[in-house]
Amino acid sequence: MTESIFPPETREVFAAAYPATPAKLTHNLLGHDLLAIEALVCLAEALPEGEIEHNPGALPIGIKPEDVPKSSLSVSETIRKIGEAGSWVVLKRIEQVPAYRDFLHAILGQLKDIVEPRTGAMMQLEGFIFISSPGAVTPFHFDPEHNILLQIRGSKVMTVFPVEDEAMFSAKVHEDYHLGLHHRNLNWFDGYAAKGTPIAISAGEAIHVPVKAPHWVQNGDEPSISLSITWRSDWSYAEADARAFNHVLRKIGLRPASPAAFPARNTGKAMAWRAIRKLRGAA
Ligand SMILES: [Fe+2]
Question: Quick one: 206 and 269 in the same domain?
Answer without folding.
Answer: no
